[in-house]
Amino acid sequence: MVSTSETKMAYPPETTAYAPENKMSPTSTEGTKSATATAKLRAANVNFHYGSFHALHDVSMEFQENKVTALIGPSGCGKSTFLRNLNRINETLRDTRLEGEITLDGQNIMDFDITEVRRRVGMVFQRPNPFPKSIFENIIYGPKINGMLKGTSAAEIVEKSLRRAALWEEAKDKLHESAYALSGGQQQRLCIARALAVNPEVLLLDEPCSALDPIATAKIEDLLVSLKDQCTIVIVTHNMQQAARVADTTGFFLMGRLIEHAKTDMIFKNPACKETEDYITGRFG
After folding, report:
1. pTM
2. What 8-state DSSP symbol labels residue 79?
3. Which domain, by its residues, includes 46?
């Protein structure tokens, strides 16, 4: 479900023209150029409409394999809408339209069966959403429906997934208890473990720490850094310090457009666009 702030946006919907004041051409920075050779996921000229409302405008972006990319920007700028297009979640909404192309390993994701897209490109949402089942059943659900249990025991998959999500030591003695008995931070790591259980190649996270305390947030951030050797990660965050801590590259969205995408240290220390600099320094947003 897309949040109200994304569907309404923070800017007037009649605004369709936008020309950022650049220090150099947006999105054509060194960080973006270096992504080309190893891009796992690509978006080319993506436009997205909620009914008559044009929410995303010609967004082109590449995501490097085994790297963390953060998407930042003010509320309603389109970053979550963009994220949800990367594994076709938005097509479950009525009266929406996607234009442009999103490719995974060079192949248009619209050519895949939707089950394969969701297996290869996993998703973790803003608030923890464990199933009303045991911890064990939460983890094994995806492998079971994807036919991944042949030759591998369910117990092995559960342990491996929980270890990858840094939750094994906390959950190993209560695997058959309700997932709701876990704390908020543990539930979010459970959701990450559930996504990892089907071995996704890309993991999307939509503000996964927004409802968590600082200790739980730190654990999630450490987890993301450790996971990038195993999959490509894209995270939407309002927390610029979080982006600086975990992301290799960062994309800045404004009014439904990608203004700039570069290496994270360049975005925060020497942004190419005035709009990025104004947002980073707190002049708006």
Report:
1. 0.85
2. H
3. 25-280
